UniProtKB/TrEMBL annotation:
Protein name: 3-hexulose-6-phosphate synthase
SMART domains xref list: OMPdecase
Keyword set, alphabetical order: Carbohydrate metabolism, Lyase, One-carbon metabolism
Pfam families hit by this protein: OMPdecase (PF00215)
Catalytic activity: D-ribulose 5-phosphate + formaldehyde = D-arabino-hex-3-ulose 6-phosphate
Sample GO molecular function, one term: orotidine-5'-phosphate decarboxylase activity
Stored CDD domains: KGPDC_HPS
EC number: 4.1.2.43
SUPFAM superfamilies referenced in this protein's UniProt entry, alphabetically: Ribulose-phoshate binding barrel
Length: 210
């Protein structure tokens, strides 16, 4: 099980400083959608150059032109690129084909998918690397979490690995770990804490004990 740190509300220098604090305890750095909107794929390149030993995920949330977007993110150094599960099968297939050529991984974000079981089975059959359940900020604000959805995909997905995101904190991590996803994605649960290093260390321990 890998721990992915999601960076969303920082600029590139702030992101690099933050990763310096926790780098021993994380496996993947996510360049979040808000950073890519502000700074472009340059942020992916800068993070990969600063931390060549960490994997980098570009949270592009691609919805169209999957092959092209994956090509651009791969050129910037992304190891993982996110595609939306609600996009067309052709978009996901294009992304998967491009990722295969470049030895990158596709993580499909199921945010906004209404029939999770059906779409998870379909997306799994398209040969994606990861299927991720994700409660976005707007539904977190309404009190929702991704834990039931994680159990659903663990039950129906046969080939892809699984990931989970959306408001995960140190207190709720044990419930997530129990479901055994392949990647646990944590943003505010680390970046919003005053002692980020200590929280990341404890999270890593919980994951390793898993
Ligand atoms: O992709 C995102 C928002 O769309 C976030 O990166 C993801 O939800 C993780 O952050 P947090 O743990 O703060 O919810």
């Amino acid at each position: 099980m890998k721990l992915q740190l999601a960076l969303d509300l920082v600029n590139i220098p702030e992101g690099i400083e933050l990763v310096k604090e926790v780098q021993e305890y994380i496996d993947i750095v996510e360049i979040g959608t808000p950073i890519i909107i502000d700074e472009g794929l340059h942020a992916v390149k800068a993070m990969k150059e600063a931390f060549p030993n960490l994997e980098v995920l570009a949270d592009l949330k691609v919805m169209d032109a999957g092959g092209y977007e994956v090509m651009r993110a791969s050129e910037a150094g992304a190891d993982y690129i996110t595609i939306l599960g609600v996009s067309e099968d052709a978009t996901i297939t294009g992304a998967v084909e491009e990722a295969r050529k470049r030895n990158r991984k596709i993580l499909v974000d199921m945010i906004g998918v209404k029939d999770l079981e059906t779409r998870a089975r379909e997306v799994d059959a398209l040969g994606v690397d990861y299927i991720c359940v994700h409660t976005g900020y707007d539904l977190q604000a309404a009190g929702q979490n991704p834990f039931d959805d994680l159990r659903t995909i663990k039950r129906v997905v046969k080939s892809a690995k699984t990931a989970v995101a959306g408001g995960i904190k140190l207190k709720t991590l044990p419930e997530v770990v129990k479901a055994q996803p392949d990647i646990v994605i944590v943003g505010g649960g680390i970046t919003g804490e005053s002692n980020k290093r200590a929280v990341a260390q404890e999270m890593k321990q919980l994951i390793q004990q898993g």
